[in-house]
Amino acid sequence: MKNHYISYLELIKPRIIFGNLISMSGAFFLASKGLINFNLLLLNIIGMFFVISSACILNNIIDCNIDKKMERTKNRVLAISLLPKNIMFILAIIFFCIGIYDLYYFVNYLSMLLAILGFIFYVVFYSIYMKKNSIYSTFVGSISGAIPPVIGYCAVNNQLNICTIILLLIFIFWQVPHSYAIYIIYLKDYKNANIPVFPIKKGIWITKYYIFLYIFLFLIFSVMLTILGYTGYKYLLSTMFVGILWLYLSWTGFYIYNDIIWARKIFRFSLISIFIISIMMAIDFIN
After folding, report:
1. What residues have CB less than 8 Å from 183, skipping those under 6 apart?
2. Does the pTM of the predicted model rise above 0.85?
């Protein structure tokens, strides 16, 4: 039997939290332009850690029956009843309240509102309804995944502007092909669980076209940060390099017939690309 501490850790999906905190921190540094308030950064990280953890716990509770039908997720702690769902629900509520309190009192009101909005998109719109009913659930879920960098930026500037819109679009257009690649890799699981993901309803070939399109849009809007003067040319060159390479990898999908191997390449490179872009926007700002 798993150690209970490991079970709790799995429940909050630490890899998702880490990825969101990296993108949020990158945007925080971008907005700071070298004048970094590390106390504010830490408080922002703490608040977002608890809000995202709460959303992930609730997602696990909502998806419990689905997880039991999928090979990839059948051993998750709630799927095998290792932890009581009612206690986990209470824990999620406590985590949410801690995170919202932290963001409101120690960051700013706007960041708190954005965190609540992202929470609603992920838990209510995506997890409760759209995941089980629509092929467009991925786009809705990607909105919640794109809000943390906006929060990171607003934690410093306390306002929405063109940069926050661009950040939102960058991370939306990144997350869709990232998710579509996962669907292709675990296509049998999603069929078994009767989840209407895009590759099942539209076919893998059409999905490849959309992956290419979204990566192209991701590249375009990533470059816009430099065009509009928010980042420098080191960021621009790095973004163009990873974006064009990711775009090329997506194009090879039309000539490679092992879809799973190809999708794994798309998935892995998506992680590399967003990490590089988050780091570069943090260090290559315009004073």
Report:
1. 138, 190, 197, 198, 199, 200, 207
2. yes
